Amino acid sequence: MKLFDLIMGLEYSKSMIKSHSNNSQAEHSFSISSEDELVKSFRVRDQKKLLLPDRLRYPLNIRSYFTWKEPSGVYTYLVMKMPNWDLPKGVAFKRTAPSGEPTGGLCNWCHAYGSSEEIGLLSVAMSANVSNSYMICQDLRCIEKIEEAAMLAGKDPEKNINDLYQKMQKLFENISGYRPD
Fold first, then answer.
1. Which one of 46, 68, 71, 173 is at 20 to 30 Å from 96 when CA atoms are compared?
2. Which among 93, 102, 57, 54 has a CA at the least distance from the CA of 73?
3. DSSP-assigned beta bridge partners for residue 91
4. Residue 22 CB: number of other CB atoms within 10 A?
């Protein structure tokens, strides 16, 4: 029974925690040495919503970016570090529940097409009354989808991966630059 629980725990961890990586030269690698450092990468507003996955082992050595969903699926978390940033930055996205019949959608970050269960609105709270919404992959597996599409087309994913990083960087710039009227 214990072996079964261990295997199921590992499968849960693999499915819920993703350190996204790619093989391009544009890859960004960074490390998070402790739980405290991970928590501090988020804004105070997002720290209140933060539910860390069980069984994380530090240091976290991350290639590209790190993402996970909390068990209910309401929040999806993203942590990344651009080469010109001193520290990693994190954000909590809130999933907007789809309404009505399932539809198709196109991710604004990686241009992958999927159902409304795969592509949908993820919102970032800017203040108590304002949020920005992004039509993106619910699981934030954009880099993997870019690589897969490039492989199938026989193309180099480098440009699209760089575009993805720029879009993610812009998200963090919008968050840090937000000033209420």
1. 173
2. 93
3. 78
4. 19
Over residues 9-37, the pLDDT tens digits come to 333 333 344 445 444 445 689 999 999 99
The residue type at 82: M
Q: Is the peptide bond preceding residue 180 cis, with omega within 30 degrees of 0? A: no
- List beta partners, residue 76: 69, 93
Using an 8 Å Cβ cutoff, are 162 and 170 in contact?
no
| Chain centre distance of CA 40 | 17
* Rounded CA separation 126/132 (Å): 7
Compute the distance between CA of residue 37 and CA of residue 103 in angstroms, rounded to an integer.
39
Alpha carbon distance 74, 54 (integer Å): 17
Give the position of tokens 């909590």: 92
Give the distance from CA 143 to its chain's centroid: 10
User: Which amino acid, residue 27?
Assistant: E
What is residue 86's DSSP assignment? S
**Tokens encoding 152:** 């199938």
**Largest CA-CA distance found in the chain, in angstroms, rounded:** 58
Structure tokens at 165: 């990083």
Tens of pLDDT along 94-135? 998 777 787 889 999 999 999 988 999 999 999 889 999 999
CB count in 10 Å sphere of residue 113: 11
Place of tokens 């725990």: 9
